[in-house]
Amino acid sequence: MDRLVNTVRPYAWGSTTALPELLGTAPTGEPQAELWMGAHPGGPSLTPRGPLDELIEADPVRELGAAAEAKFGPRLPFLLKILAAGAPLSLQVHPDLDQARAGYAAEEAAGIPLDAPHRTYRDANHKPEMICALTPFEGFCGFRAPADAADTLAALGVDSLKPYADLLLAHPEDAALREVLTALLTADPAEMAGTVTEAAEAAARLGGAHAPYAVLAHHFPRDPGVIAAMLLHHIRLQPGEALYLGAGVPHAYVSGLGVEIMANSDNVLRCGLTPKHVDVPELLRIVRFDPAEPAVLRPEASPTGEEVYETPIDEFRLSRFVRPEGAAPTDLTTGTPQILLATAGRPTAGAIALTPGESVFVPAGEGVELSGAGTVFRATVVA
After folding, report:
1. pTM for this structure?
2. How far lies 93's CA from each of 189, 265, 279, 286, 338, in Å?
3. Which residues are catalytic?
4. How do residues 6-15 score in pLDDT, each as one tens digit?
């Protein structure tokens, strides 16, 4: 079992205070957006035995277990993060596995460098993900009923939005959503900038349910993603609640601190709220235009005290233990690889004492007992 030394990502949208407050460190004044835990080649965790990706590459069966290695190959199939949003992230979707493989192969064949700004597929993997709130957490996720979105647009009283509101009332609903998102992303930039400015001013005046769009426009003035977000559900998670995001579901995180887990991939297609490349044709091929209410996940404790966040994929399994003072030790030995992350208290994993934000990697089959009071998230796989 190895204590992990993890990389903090200073993305511009990161909070300057949330991660330092959790970790008990002094703020630097710079944004601290994500703390990565895992074996992603872009920022592998370090262990006393070396970088985690190199340990797994050298002996995947020992580190991952035979079942996980056979199912997912010689790599840790998930990436665990603490995400600290101080400003909105880009409005985005992720491809499914077949789409990722085809897109990656096509861009490789075209000779597009992996680090090219206009490159869409950085790898051949899908990227289902889940966010579990540590503090109140806000974002946008999944398409609303088009009629509800039309009401939101109409209430702003902006003449240039009326055609979009009218389109949303057409049938079938998925075709209406596709047509409106296409129109937003392909509109004349100067005209759309004026529309967004008017809409943001109206949203600020109206407040209430419209207030979040004024926040988006404050960070991304004149960006069509502000209007695109009006097509989506506005969500607020309370601590302990989680949201699972499958392929093709548009989403944007806005604020809050949470534990995030995802398949080990960098594939992101952006819809807006970003200065980065937006590949409109490929985006429209990937997005699933199905109105659906986001399912907020609330775990239930098992007899062992483990609270599991159920998801429909096998690349990751996330659970947590909320341990009171005097709780009996819990045996977490399993035949799959694990990362244990403390977020509160002073729990101990084996002989390693953890403070909030600290984590350990437990190779498959290695004995580990969880003791002490505190909250620990457990990330592993279904093999």
Report:
1. 0.95
2. 22, 13, 12, 8, 27
3. 270
4. 989 999 999 9
